[in-house]
Design a protein that fits this description.
Length: about 180
């Protein structure tokens, strides 16, 4: 199987020039090793937050939850910007799915952060779980449609499984 794959090879009408522009885009199936490490490293604090919650005293748990939710919301907000930025590479402009996904992620991240002022962290944790699990499912579909880099199809499910598992554990511990 080739290291790179042609994901886009089509003519696109350019409205300002009234001519067709042929684009050929080749992308790697997997990001470089450093990219894989950095993608997963961003999820480690959420996993560590779940572990810390189980180990710290009851008095320290709100601090651990607050830090974990803040980090998780920041990552979701960052990834919403990544998705929006990727839409700029789409010939003919961003699709409704691209903009909708970006805005949904932004809303989930912002609401999760704002949820820190609620008496319980469960809504924030659920919103983060929805965002991370959603990316794990939807990003591979978007990659196959050419809306995100091809390597999202292989990278995102495992990358998003880490925070999703940690958040499920946190929710279970909080509700116990």
């Amino acid at each position: 199987m080739p290291d790179r794959i042609n994901v886009l090879d089509r003519a696109v009408e350019h409205p300002e020039r009234r001519a067709a522009l042929v684009l050929r885009v080749e992308e790697p199936r997997w990001p470089p090793l450093l990219g894989i490490l950095l993608a997963h490293a961003a999820m480690v604090p959420i996993l560590l937050g779940a572990i810390a919650f189980a180990l710290v005293t009851v008095e320290m748990r709100p601090l651990v939850l607050g830090a974990t939710i803040t980090w998780g919301a920041s990552v979701v907000l960052f990834l919403s910007g990544v998705r929006r930025g990727l839409s700029f590479r789409t010939p003919g402009g961003a699709t409704v799915a691209q903009v909708s996904t970006s805005m949904a992620l932004f809303g989930l991240g912002l609401l999760a952060f704002c949820g820190l002022w609620l008496p319980t962290p469960v809504p924030s944790l659920l919103l983060l779980l929805l965002a991370f699990a959603g990316m794990g499912v939807l990003d591979p579909i978007a990659a196959r449609r050419g809306e995100t880099p091809l390597y999202f199809a292989g990278l995102r499910p495992l990358q998003m499984a880490l925070p999703s598992a940690a958040l499920i554990g946190l929710i279970a511990m909080v509700l116990a």
